[in-house]
Amino acid sequence: MSEKPASYEAAVERLEQIIDRLDSGQAGLRETLDLCREGRELVVYCTAELDAVSEDLEELRLDELAAKLETAPAGSGEG
Amino acid sequence: MDLPGPFPVGRYAKTLRDELRKRARVQLIGEITGLRHTQKQTYFELRDADGAVPCTIWADDLARLSLPDGTLRDGAEFVAGGGPDYFTGSATSSPAFSFRVTQLRLAGEGDLLARLEALRKQLRAEGLFELQKQLARPALPKTIGVVTAESGAARRDLLAGLRRRGWAGTVVWAFAPVQDRRAAPAIAAAIQDLAARPEIEAVVVTRGGGSLADLWAFCDETLCRTVAMLRVPVIGAVGHERDSTLIDDVAAVSCSTPTHAAEAVVPLDCRAARGALQRAAVSLRRAGEGALGGRSRHLVALARGPARALRRERAALNQKTREMRAASERGVGERRSFQRRIALVVLDRAARRAAGPEAASRREALRRAEVAFRAHDPERTLERGYALAEDDEGEPVTAAAEARAAGHVKLRFADGSVGAEIESGRGGE
């Protein structure tokens, strides 16, 4: 991916812009292909974000959260 | 010292008591604290955020009020009617000031609402209602914090709401009592603890429904100021039936039920979002394929264009040729017909002229000319028996010397020519 979106909602907003532009039929061939590539990257990003909150709902108490984060390997917390 | 007196203190104490008893009787509202009973009296303090007044009520007066068991307890919000009094004490007992209560009732919704409105007005004036609402809320948080009672239905309802949205991230619980006024500090501490964790992207504060008195902790000024100042969005979901609590005003979002709070803290319906993403992917694929396919077809059509144009032009040309031929044939016929008409007119005119009176004299003149011409015609001379001598070139030989010189001549008669040799020395010599 050329540049990671700021957030899920930013990615979706850009995706909607891309599809609106493509639906307008005004994009030339080069622009269309570029937009399709960018759009596919955004779909992949958004799907990954959804996958991250689609496995099993985890319940923790605040102290358990702190303990979990302290024992987690360094760098595994943030993607 | 120029003050009046000195007066005996006992007398002064009684005068003070009498003066206080003259003050207007009023109702006070506040929270019961330090409740204790003796055989003759019941003591407590009526307190709010700004101060407190020590109160006493005679046991007989209290019994007469017939308050339900357990109603009068620490932490309860009460309205007390009465006036200031002063126990003057004695030689062996200490004096004491108190608000002598003669009427006592549990604070009603109206009393609480009046206090709530005053506090609401103050916090709004300070701009505290807007701070949370200016915070960005993530559409798809991975970790959320929740403050609620450990055993309450709100916990179950919130989880059910989150699962209905297809969300399965991490919920971090910070349990706290949520029932009475004294719960407010514990609730505020729980919210602050959650908000201090950088992983937590939003905090839900929730409990099930109840009367305004049950929810009074969520109108606590300190709690609401704490929430207003947090940099993590707080979703208030205190199940009020009619009147909103103060936390509803300061929170980023206010919901009426834990189920609604689930929708507010995870604004994205994950199942619907997954469907929308699939549709977006299909749109992108079609757009890409369509852009290439459409242009390819266009190119193919362009490549076929010249041949098609030629065919079209040829057909047009043939048509025009046919049209021209048809027009030409029509024109020739018309011209022929016209010329025929003209010739007839000319011939007619010539015939008329030929039949005129001058024709006879012209014929006669012609005949005379023909006679004259024939008289001079050599052929006519030959017919009469003469012959014409000609040399080889066909030129007339008109002298004997020419004939001798030539050696031979050709004699031309009316019916043909014969050759003749010239004998020299004979004849005219």
Query: Shape of chain B, please?
Result: rod-shaped
What share of residues of chain A is helical?
Answer: 55-70%
How many strand segments of chain B? 13
Strand content of chain B: 15-25%
Low-confidence stretches of chain B: none
Notes on the protein architecture:
The complex is a heterodimer of chains A (79) and B (429). Chain A has 79 residues and is mainly alpha-helical. Chain A has helices at 8-24, 29-52, 62-71; one strand at residues 58-61. The longest helix of chain A is centred in the middle third of the chain and has 24 residues, at 29-52. The relative contact order of chain A is 0.12. Chain B is an alpha/beta fold and 429 residues long. Chain B is built from twelve helices and 13 strands. Chain B has helices spanning 9-21, 59-65, 109-125, 153-164, 183-195, 221-229, 246-250, 258-265, 270-354, 358-375, 378-383, 400-406; strands at residues 26-37, 41-48, 51-58, 77-87, 96-106, 143-148, 170-175, 202-210, 234-240, 253-255, 388-390, 408-413, 416-421. A five-stranded mixed barrel of chain B has the order 1-2-3-5-4. A five-stranded parallel β-sheet of chain B has the order 7-6-8-9-10. In chain B, α6 (221-229) links the parallel β8 and β9 (234-240). The termini of chain B are far apart. The interface between A and B is large, with 37 and 39 residues. β1 of chain A pairs parallel with β7 (170-175) of chain B, so a sheet runs across the interface.
Features:
heterodimer; A: 79 residues; mainly alpha; 3 helices; 65% helix; B: 429 residues; alpha/beta; five-stranded mixed barrel; 12 helices
Q: What's the short story on this structure?
A:
The complex is a heterodimer of chains A (79) and B (429). Chain A is mainly alpha-helical and 79 residues long. Chain A is built from three helices and one strand.
